[in-house]
Amino acid sequence: MKIEQIYTGCLAQGAYYIESNGEVAIIDPLREVSPYIKKAEDNNATIKYIFETHFHADFVSGHVTLSKQTGAPIVYGPEANPNFDAIIATDGQEFKLGNITIVALHTPGHTMESTTYLLKDENGNNHAIFSGDTLFLGDVGRPDLAQKAASMTQEQLAGLLFDSLRTKIMPLADDVIVYPAHGAGSACGKNLSKQTVGTIGEQKATNYALRADMTKEEFVQEVTDGLLPPPQYFPLNVKMNKEGYDDIDDVLERGTRPLEPKEFEAIANETGAIILDVRHQNDFVKGHIPRSISIGIDGGFAPWVGALIADVKQPILLVAPEGREEETIIRLSRVGFDNTLGYLKGGFEAWKHNGFEYDTISSISAEEFKSILDKEEVPVFDVRKDGEFKSEHVVNAHHTSLDYLNDYLAEFPEDKPFYVHCAGGYRSVIAASILKSRGIHNLVDVAGGYAAIKNAGIPTTDYVCPSTLK
């Protein structure tokens, strides 16, 4: 028996390759399926089943394409109703895979169809669970994403999740391994661990939601407390996972179209496409196409695209580092953005070399920022997340979290410079690019973010001051 976790850091997502006696099961595959197929071929094995723990909200699974290319059936748990052929397992239904058995345990609560897959080894012993978004390490799945589809409140779904955990998962032996669908960084839970593999016993001892003396009322209160609104793209990804989508090869064929600067500009004007610049933020600051949006490929790329671009059908034109165009298109497709129309051939340097207009972002060091603050009080906008800001921030700074930046455009001064920072520089440049695309140009980015600000000795406070905005 072989179990391999295939973890994708930018999505904080774990897919699983399970093999026994020449037969393979894939659990929650990513959109690009060729690595799974190649791995099975290299091992002279055949993909027999594709298991989906639920209709994912934070990424588009590769289940439809993988089934099409291998002939392996897709398996969902009870109450799933996809628009394509699939096996809808009953609670407790067993699936033989070589010398092992995979059992579907219906665990509703995160969603109604959520299912945990229990793996029994060659001797019939419970070996591991693939818990999807039902149980994470350190947390459980948020119960607010499926309210509309289930015609239930988040409190009712949380109550179902309490029952699922205590009747299906907690009775398992402490040494049963837990393989979750996500780790720290995912928006599918609140307090996910950085660890990606654990055991039932460890979770009983450390996970707040598995306390032995916890009442259902306490569980519902604690699980629903402090939930932030989900990213806008979540329901759109659920729809794609449930109804199907274009093959990744078709997406790549459309997107990997090299465009000369003049053609690139013409298509942008004709289609209303967003120009998405995925170069490093430092390069974007020095020069970029006017009104383009910066979301660097080497940061939390896909989740930020999903959070900040409202519609997965939005046409996109790419400015990418040379040789990373295909990678960018694949990573966009993982969160459902399939409508890439092409990329700028030769990158930004070709645009600049051909004499096209370009823009820059005013940027200063933390030391320069300190010298300004020593002389006068200026507007400072912190675009970090709520928890980061509440923990510590520049005295009298306003808080306009990047996630909700578009809701606060009216808060930025029109008649004087203001200063923007994040933790390290990645998010503040994203924010600056969005503001400039909205016609707000009197901003200054503080390079290096809050880390540099602290090192420069700029006064900070650890409480939320009255001037704080959301």
From TrEMBL:
GO terms for biological process: glutathione metabolic process; hydrogen sulfide metabolic process. The keyword Metal-binding applies. Keywords: Metal-binding. Residues 269-360, 374-462 form the Rhodanese domain. InterPro entries: Metallo-B-lactamas, Mito_Persulfide_Diox, POD-like_MBL-fold, Rhodanese-like_dom, Rhodanese-like_dom_sf, RibonucZ/Hydroxyglut_hydro. It comes from the Bacteria. One of its GO terms (molecular function) is metal ion binding. This is MBL fold metallo-hydrolase. It comes from Aestuariibaculum marinum.
